[in-house]
Amino acid sequence: MEATVLGKSIIVPSVQELAKGSKLVTVPDRYIRDDVDALISSTGDDNNDLQVPIIDMEGLLSGDGVELMKLHLACQDWGFFQLINHGVKLSLVEKLKIEIQEFFNLSIEEKKKFWQGPNEIEGYGQAFVLSEDQKLDWADMFFLTTFPKHERRPHLFPNLHPPFSDALEDFSDETRKLGIKILECLGKTLGIGSLREVFGEGQQMMRMNYYPPCPEPHTVVGLTAHSDAVALTILLQLNDMDGLQIMKDGEWFLVKPVPNAFVVNVGDILEILSNGTYKSVLHRAMVNVSKERLSIGSFYSPSLTNEIGPMTELTGPGTPGKFRRITMADYWKGFFTRTLDGKSYLDAMRIQDSDEASV
Ligand code: OGA
Ligand code: NI
Fold first, then answer.
1. Which of 58, 79, 126, 213 qualifies as a FRET site for 136, CA 20 to 30 Å off?
2. What are the structural domain ranges in the chain?
3. Is the domain defined by 17-302+335-342 classed in CATH 3.40.50.700?
């Protein structure tokens, strides 16, 4: 089967190349933002009252009711948690970290082999760039579909060198299985049984983010504030650089990396399926002056051939569905032809009071 092309993005220069060496002292205008609100609070050690919840996967798997309740509250109140005892081998994580760093360290000529085509969002480059005058993020990314295998672009995964592709293959398998286990727990905490049927065989994309150091870090954004359009994201921060911030009660909070934990977050699709019980929360990545920051996200969603909408178990006469039903293929086509703009895509899925009740 032909791989499905989901969208396109204007080709932009590599920020890593731009930031290389000590020559760059001022940031080009295309990256300068005037709309960045500062970090107001931090969930670091100095503020123990407010911490992104830490969830223990072993507790969830053993059916521990307290841990399941913590998971429920994390998805409802924060949309984010840090997952410990996730079961993915440390040796695999370490191997992957080295391989990703080496990948980004390749010469630009080598990386050009993976460069995005004009009609693609997958590959090396940037996504969501739709106009020449749009402000750009201070980062490069490498984005690719990993599952199902027939949706992989022939020039991407198959062309990666074996130590990297092996590590990526194993890590994508592990994070996909882990994502399915988390979703099974969420089926329980939502009280609707299994979410398996909605997901079908599922779809997984991976994105590696490379945020170069920046001479004027407060004038740029590494990754524009957004919610993740997918169902569930599992993020690994590769080095110990802070940068991920999430919106909580109208303020930006820094997510302090917990060693060996994954940052897991609710995506828009899970907000839709749960009819708004679980929240996909705004987050962004910021950069710093001294050192690059790297991360890899594993994004899990229902199969392209499936349809999504609020789970029927969660809607009824007194609780109408808040979101439209849509096929995954149409959902992605809509998403990848927009710029990344907060939670605006989810809002476009919302049923307005003026709409006829259709669910
Ligand atoms: C993402 C994301 C945050 C980070 O890739 O969707 O939010 O810290 N990444 O890289
Ligand atoms: Ni994100």
1. 79
2. 17-302+335-342
3. no
3-state secondary structure of 232: strand
What's the pLDDT band for 294 if we cut at 50, 70, 90? very high
CA 228 to ligand 1: nearest atom? 6
Evaluate whether 260 touches 270 at the Cβ level (below 8 Å).
no
pTM: 0.93
Instruction: With cut-offs at 50, 70 and 90, classify the pLDDT of residue 48.
Output: very low
Which of 238, 264, 294, 295 to probe ligand 1 with, by most ligand atoms within 8 A of CB?
295
What's the whole-number mean pLDDT along residues 295-318? 96
Average pLDDT for the chain = 89
Tell me the pLDDT tens digit for each residue of 169-193: 999 999 999 999 999 999 999 999 8
* Widest CA span in the chain: 64
Ligand 1 proximity of 228 Cβ (cutoff 6 Å) = yes
Residue with tokens 């096929």, as numbered in its chain? 327
Rg for the chain, CA atoms, rounded? 20
Q: What is the 3-state secondary structure (H, E, C) of 241-273?
A: CCCEEEEECCEEEECCCCCCCEEEEECHHHHHH
